[in-house]
Amino acid sequence: MNTQRVIGDREVSALGFGCWAVGGPFSDIEGKPLGWGEVDDDESIAAIRRAVDLGVTFFDTADVYGAGRSERVLGRAITGHRDEVVIASKWGNVFDEDTKVLTGADQSVEYMRKAIRASLQRLGTDYLDLYQLHIAPSVDEAEPLADAAEELVKEGLIRGYAWSTDDPERAAAWAGRPGYVAVQHECSVLHDAPEILDLCERHNLASINRTPLAMGLLGRRDRNRPATGADIRSAAPEWLRFFADGVPTDEWASKVDALREILTSDGRTLAQGALAWLWARSERTIPIPGFRNIAQAEDNAGALAHGPLRPDQLTEVAALLRG
Questions:
Q1: CB–CB of 56/302 below 8 Å?
Q2: Rounded to the nearest 5 degrees, what angle is found at the Cα of 33, between the Cα atoms of 15 and 300?
Q3: pTM more than 0.85
Q4: d(CA 259, CA 219)
């Protein structure tokens, strides 16, 4: 397996790490949880540094994760190692860093420029490798943001930009612009994204895969370990379809059971098999599984040694999902 991918002019590991969970608790204005529960910052930092030791060079966060906490934790973890890693963050959400509450969204260019400066300060760096739009204005409304992102590239504040979206029309809207180098979108063995993967192939874009482990369903979370408290899965919003009342739904759990044997073949854990499917699906994929401790970081990073599923295994997975 080629263990490297490309985002714009940067070479990165084929596996990235998503830093949503290490931001700890935050909520919407109604008090509903948007984080993954309590975390220990020192443990998060140790896990990030362990990931780097194991060959992971790409870390994805957002200003809103933990209402700024995720960026601050990642910034502490990479102190003294900035040139060894590729860092992506996102903008568009408005939040209160003191109360840890998401208060709204702002699609203005003025807010974008304010947000990039705040992210750079929290991360302790003077540039971002990738800056991603984290909200969903219309294609027309987003055009000024793409123009502004090109200016940020020229100013050296970012190296490239992307849109975090599952909508193929939005993902395609900025294609052809020189600084538009990636799409972040949902993709997993339980939720393929053929249109966006094809777009990435045609336009030489990186495919950054969020929820590659289906919010933990393809990893360490089952019906015997319900999510509770400040974990978003304990009161799952409508878009988080894999869970209800803190546990996997019967429908999705049965799909995982059907795939378990093939995904855990060749010595892989379930999570490693799910990541292997993504690498087999496209040579542009960069899955970004979440983590909260060293053990999870090691399990995720261990997928690199196994590489992608074989073509016959990919075919078998497709047949199992068709039932």
A1: no
A2: 20
A3: yes
A4: 12
